[in-house]
Amino acid sequence: MIRRFWVFIEQEDGKIHPVAWELLGVARRLATEISDELEKSNDQAIVEGILVGQGVSALAGEAFQYGADRVYVVDAPPFKHYINYAYTTALVTLVQKYQPEVFLIGATTLGRDLAGSVATTLRTGLTADCTQLQMGIARDSARKLLLMTRPAFGGNVIATIMCKNHLPQMATVRPRVFNAPPPSPQRQGEVIQESVPLDPSAANVEILEFITSQSAKVKIEYADIIVSGGRGLGGPGGFALVKELADELGGVVGSSRPCVDAGWISYDHQVGQTGKTVRPKLYIAVGISGAIQHKVGMQDSDFIIAINRDPHAPIFEIATVGIVGDLYEVVPNMIQQIRSLKEAKHG
Amino acid sequence: MFHALVCIKQVPDTTNIRIDPETGNLIRQGVPTILNPYDAHAVAAAVEWKRKLGGKVTVISMGPPAAASAIRECIELGADRGILISARQFSGSDTLATSYVLAKVIEAVSKDEPVDLVFFGKQAIDGDTAQVGPGVASRLGFPMVTYAVKIRELNLQDGYVVIERKTETRNEILKAKLPAALTCEKDIAEIPYASLPDLIYSLKYEPELWTAESPIAFDPAQIGLKGSPTTVYKTGTPEKHTGGEVFHSAEFGLEQAIKLALDKLAASPVGNSILRVSQ
Q1: Does A140 touch chain B (CB under 8 A)?
Q2: pTM for this prediction
Q3: d(CA A25, CA A173)
Q4: Complex ipTM
Q5: Which of B51, B85, B157, B218 has its CA 20 to 30 A from that of B15?
């Protein structure tokens, strides 16, 4: 028997979303976690990618570098842009044909829209926003199951979910929760073209227009340096100072939820359980108390500096280094010190 | 006549959750519950269009008896009818089972009064799955528009709706055939102040109670734990972190406290590359 570990390779306008590579890395690891079961049987584990779009076949090659053994490609005009009905039909058709054991999808806006429809159509389980994935025995299962761990109740609880009697075991994972594996340029694989017929009468949605805003939307998930502001800023004006520090470091501006809720800054900047998961090299939390819902979104940053007036703020629990003080004094001084540091290096 | 149906959920106020410091467990008692914030905006949008076109807003919710108060809140916002789907048999339902129950209720409601548009919040703040909306829509065979920020046009005569939705990279304008479903961002509508008649009506409003058997019978194999492919294997609390060194500016002086922190950064594996970034 072939035990298939599937990853949806999300693309938009011919650009692959990096979460696909992160998930191929996870799928590769999951496949090795059942090696003991494979040794005892004639089973074989393979990692496969699913790529849907128009004119996308050439993109499949890159998936091999990140760990796919094989890529199924649905490449036809009706799949040019993401439409829930068309993409759901494609994925459901392929799942029914090949019966994967595990199916991972990025928890992007597209992926969440798609995963819910696919799982419901297949009448299987789906676990959203997993932060840990592992193959393991649970409750005397006959073989290893996908154990899906995710935060719940705003990050206050960590729950491990299983889907024991239904296949595929489906999970979504947010970008940046896992690191992409280093690509192996020499790795090869097999591309399999699939054709999925669509019922034209079932197509009940059409795209009229795309609106791309002048200022491209902020992508904080993949930034190396993030300076985030919180309620301690006291008002929307405080973000000017946050931005000044971010600019000085070549970073981007993030925010905690209360500031977004209060309308001080747009949702695109929000870090946390209901915002984005980030793992930059440097994260500076300015006036953020560190509610659990914020921490789950940034705790994997390499280096965290917390600036807060309250020495008991929970943000200090996960900070690599903390500064207790008035942010309106600390941040301007920090900007100056960074400037002189850089001048010293270049001078 | 426009008939909007909104699926809502009562949720614990996750910003106010407390953890038992001894056991590390969630303290459920005394945790305030609220109408899921995104759902409130979905109700507001449905009411806004009802007022424009004339018609009716029906709100449905699956939950414990106490969820009646969330429905009452929707009535206060201008909804006309509320149905609470509540029975012991439903407990333990995951998103697949929940979508079955909601879809079945929507079908039943539609038999008497056909529904044009089904609204959802984009996600509930307790589970954050965003799965129930797409699940219900695919069961009903309705077109689904997620992350809606604006209903641009609603044409009952020609049977379509034009919705603007937000994706990670851009906004999309979609035209969907009615009946359709959408999940709403907060931008979809402002929460209005309740009118006095709506407020008074909501105070004494009792939602209709639908159980597992009546007025429609649900398949016992598709609800509750039995109807849920996913189950919780175990739960725990997030890892405790101890944190690094903290420098008080009151103790070290402002300048020195910041210098000590930046020294740590400079000495760290990432520090050199970061402090070199100057253009």
Answers
A1: no
A2: 0.91
A3: 12
A4: 0.90
A5: B85
